[in-house]
Amino acid sequence: MRVLVIQNYKHTGLGLVGRALAEAGAQIDLVQAHLGEALPSDDAGYDALISLGGDQNALADEQFPYLPLLARLIRRFGDADKAVLGICLGSQLVARGYGAENILGRELEFGWHEVTVTPEAASDPVLSSVPQHFPIFHWHTDTFTLPEGAVRLASSGITRNQAFRIGRAVYGIQFHFEADTTLVEEWRHVFADEIIRDNADWLENYPALVAENGVPADAAGLALARAWVALI
Q: CA distances (Å), 25 to each of 87, 135, 183, 200, in order?
């Protein structure tokens, strides 16, 4: 099993998805596209594609000219019936690749917040692995319309389109289910200036927040990661 992973921003590791891939014995090819590393021209030789999150928006083509190429590559993998996973910015690029509208600069959704799965999630091979309501980590302002033919699988109080599936195994997931407490702990240090600027109270309340949400969020994230990897 060979998986192409596209990193779009610093310190955006695979987290729980990496754990699930390791359990499955996957070979990971990492492309740090935000640093100028070239994307492959097509899906040849790969069984799946993961596009991770990032601070930029999905339409920032002038600063990140690889973004339209990545959106097309996502569609190429999907059209070949290969598993695709877009997380946060990655989900917005899945939406772009499938012709949906990217909606920029909305209200910030940050920290652990509850997500609710839709009735359609009950029969979905990935979202059926989690409870109807569960806390999970978020960090975004942008969102998207649902691509034509996509199945909405989860929503939150702020964001209607939190997760969707296209076809058999193309998933866009806005929330950071890969971000277990270990990764969030890293982010609270390396991105401390950004957090203080936008959400200083969260840092002050961090011990109580992680105690309340960490265990169920990690459990949900690992269940989702394992279920998606099983589709590869």
A: 21, 29, 22, 40
